Amino acid sequence: MKLQMRFFVRAASMAALVSISCLPAIVKAQAAVDAVEQQDIQARTAWRETMHQTVAPARGCFHATYPSTFWEEVECAPAPAWRSALPLARNREQVVGNGHDYVFGAPAGSLISLAKGSFPTVKGVTSEKSVGVAAFGDGGILGTNEYTLQVNTNFYLGSAACAGYKNCVAWQQYVLSTNTPVSLTSAKLTRDTEVFIEYWLIDYGVHNGRNICPTGFIDSGEDSLGPGDDCVQNTPATLVAKGQLPITDLASLTLSGSASAGGTDAATVTYDGEAYTATVVNSYTDMASGWTQAEFNVFGNAGGSEADFNSSGVSITVKVAATDGSSASPTCVAPSKDDGTTGETNNLKLGSCTATGGRAPYIEFTETN
């Protein structure tokens, strides 16, 4: 019996020694796997940054898949009849948007050529619903997972596209929408996620009851404040995903807008290992000559609607980085009636904002419920 016991003890001891001797190899193997995964994460992050900086070769719709940095032309969806809302005076302190937002302000004398928005930290987001707002006639595309990401320019007074009309201002929105009308002639909804640019000439010309807008624009009627009409149009849309991307994917999305004098303007979105872009000629708004502020956030889906997040526990960090030809620190333009250019909102409340200069200047702020 004692002999058997000794045998078992010795066997157990040998097994333990073998197990312990294998530990360094196991640890090394796991470390190697972790290193490879980290390298892949860094490579994908660098690739996404490259795609936001890489201009598509022509006007149209394009797609790229990691690790390729070549924009491949794809079939465009028709220009959607999606319409944003201009900001109105209302209780801005209760929501983000509608003129109540932190905005990236370029240093004096600098012009923005590219602005990129992302969400470095997203906590507690489980659901979202786009709801109508009475001040905007309860308009918009309403329901669960109905939202937009928007990079919005300032209102540019003096744009060459305004053809000398002194009250006219140009405005441009780079939009990712989780649902859009099928086309300008059909109100049927795609139920797909698309990226496109909406471009405006506000208070253009002198209203005369007829279409007075320049070629490439739709006359949406008399401006509420001035003598002219509001002229608007969208680029054809690039399909990002069949179906609506859920709000729980928010941290995976980055949207940028660029403007190039004499060239093309582009709305670009990256989502995991995919990149999508839609472009339009800059001459429609001449925004490259007057882009000094950039707004970015998640909002309701068109028509002045509001993105309502789940009732509690939401905390989001918003980052707006821009290329403005300067390494100086930008300005966190404080919320006021004159800052932020979209009428859409979300139901979160703004926290603090910090501005950082350097090779890629940015502002970063928080919003919670």
UniProtKB/TrEMBL annotation:
Region described as Disordered: spans on this chain: 325-344
Record keywords: Signal
This protein's record includes keyword Signal: yes
UniProt superkingdom: Bacteria
Signal peptide span: 1-31
Protein name: Secreted protein
The organism of origin for this protein: Acidicapsa dinghuensis
